[in-house]
Every structure is written in structure tokens, then in C-alpha cells.
Design a protein that fits this description.
about 180 residues; mainly alpha; about 65% helix
Length: about 180
């Protein structure tokens, strides 16, 4: 490939705007996002306030965008949601344990390896990269969790989001979730 061709690829392929979703989709996405994150946050507060445990991690916000706002996306399906967080959390904890003396290296290996592992396991879920990164850059309390981080919050949280997604996304006749379970 010639260098000019390389740069020409960066223009994109279309010049049209992305399609707009209807107001009903926007409202149901909002309701789902609110109910899902509120459920995880409420359970976190009710059961884990004042402890070193937490049920909430930032990557769940990105998962909410997918499972409530892009319900038909392959990246939003249950296998990807739960499996992506699960395998990424394992990768992140392993990277912390092996490379914590070298934080930048641990961070880069965690995210890159999470992407590769999600591809291999057919569980690609973009927020999983943040789950792996969180295992490395998290607090001392999070690091003390070790592999418990995989279960709580990285698997339990997405399971709660999934239950809410199944309940909320199937209320309107125009939506269906999931498209495929496994």
C-alpha cells in the first residue's frame, strides 16, 4: 500500500449523518439505563456501604449504553456483556499480580490482552477493556480483592444489568432483547 492510500483511508467511506433513532427508542434507552444503573447502585449502597467491597465500576456505564441503547448490537448480547466483563477481569487481575511494579506496562498489557481474550472467547464487549484496566489502576482495597474482583463486581454487576435489560427492553413492542443468549 502506498503512503497516500494509507492516509486516504482515514477519510471514511460516507459523508452522511448517522441515522437518528425515534423518540420512543430514546425514552426506552433512558429508562433502561436509569433502572439498570440504579439497581446496581442501590444494591451496592444497601449491601456494601462502609465496606471495601463495591458492586459498581465505571465500565458498567458503558455497558449500559450498549445493552439499553444498542440492544441489537452483537456487542450488547448477554454472552458478550457477562463474558466480556468476566474474562477481562481475570486478565486484569493477572496483569496486576504479574506486572504491578511496572504500572504503565501492566495497564497496556491488561487492555490489549483483554481485547485478545474477548476475541478468542467470542465475548467482545468494549467496556471489558475498562474492567481489565480498572483491575490494574484501582485502589488498594480493590487490589486486595484479587480474584474476588472477577466475581464482585465484574460478574455480579453485569448479571444485574442483564436482568434489568431483559425486563425493560422487552416492554415496548418495537424492542427485543436479547437477540441471542449464547
Amino acid at each position: 500500500m502506498k503512503v497516500p492510500e494509507y492516509f486516504l483511508k482515514m477519510r471514511g467511506t460516507t459523508r452522511t449523518l448517522l441515522p437518528r433513532v425515534n423518540n420512543s427508542e430514546i425514552i426506552w434507552s433512558w429508562i433502561g439505563g436509569f433502572c439498570g444503573i440504579a439497581s446496581v447502585a442501590w444494591l451496592d449502597h444497601f449491601f456494601f456501604a462502609g465496606t471495601d467491597l463495591s458492586l459498581m465500576i465505571a465500565s458498567f456505564g458503558a455497558s449500559a449504553v450498549l445493552i439499553y441503547g444498542a440492544v441489537r448490537s452483537p456487542l450488547a448480547q448477554p454472552r458478550n456483556l457477562v463474558g466480556g466483563h468476566f474474562v477481562s477481569a481475570i486478565v486484569g487481575v493477572i496483569c496486576w499480580k504479574l506486572f504491578h511494579p511496572y504500572p504503565a506496562l501492566a495497564q497496556a498489557i491488561a487492555v490489549a490482552s483483554a481485547i485478545a481474550t474477548m476475541h478468542v472467547t467470542r465475548t467482545l464487549h468494549p467496556p471489558g477493556g475498562a474492567t481489565a484496566l480498572n483491575a490494574v489502576i484501582g485502589s488498594t482495597a480493590l487490589h486486595k480483592l484479587g480474584f474476588w474482583y472477577v466475581i464482585m463486581p465484574a460478574t455480579l454487576g453485569p448479571l444485574i444489568l442483564l436482568v434489568v435489560a431483559v425486563l425493560v427492553n422487552n416492554v415496548p413492542a418495537t424492542r427485543r432483547y436479547p437477540e441471542i443468549w449464547f
